[in-house]
Design goal:
This protein is α+β, with helices and mostly antiparallel strands. The chain is built from 2 helices and 8 strands; from the N terminus they run αββββαββββ.
């Protein structure tokens, strides 16, 4: 299993990428059009990244050590061309004696359009966003708390963002749209 240093690294990377794209778009807007249309540049190759951190949670009166892994997996087609970069967050119990007997639950939302964040930060992960029962959740910044209803005492958890949602996206010549062979 891929191990990761810190989920924050991926978030910082995403925010810096967004800022870079905004800057490039501003430069393109100010640039003079070329006499000849430029050929489409080949997309930069996607690469797998990961970060792992160690934590503990108290569930049912027991303290459970676990690893949190935020990572991407690169998918390729039969021609060995990149097609998608799938993002996931995994929570794995650190003190499991026999991993072959440890269940793993894969959690994901529909998609396109809905990442695993709602199930992740609202339901099953070791930490969750504090919400108001039967009421509207106040706007950000959000407060977090340990999730005593987390399933980590019974199963390892892997939250997956389908392509085109969250941090998962098409790669190479593929696009995040329905009908291109990546999205259903």
């Amino acid at each position: 299993m891929i191990r990761m240093k810190n989920v924050g690294v991926l978030l910082a990377l995403a925010f810096s990428l967004i800022a870079s794209i905004a800057g490039l778009r501003a430069q393109e807007k100010d640039a003079k059009p070329a006499d000849k249309p430029a050929e489409a540049a080949a997309p930069a190759p996607a690469k797998e990244e990961s970060s792992v951190t160690d934590h503990t949670i108290r569930i049912g009166g027991q303290t459970i050590p676990y690893k949190a892994t935020a990572a991407t997996i690169l998918l390729k087609n039969e021609k060995d061309e990149q097609t998608a970069l799938i993002y996931y967050t995994a929570y794995t119990r650190s003190d499991a004696k026999d991993l072959s007997q440890r269940p793993v639950s894969f959690v994901y939302n529909g998609g396109p359009g809905s990442s695993s964040v709602w199930l992740h930060m609202g339901s099953f992960a070791p930490r969750r966003v504090i919400t108001v029962n039967a009421g509207a959740t106040p706007p950000a910044p959000y407060k977090f708390a340990e999730n005593a209803n987390c399933l980590l005492d019974k199963t390892d958890l892997v939250f997956i963002d389908p392509v085109g949602t969250g941090f998962s996206h098409a790669a190479g010549k593929a696009q995040d749209r329905i009908g291109d062979g990546i999205l259903p």
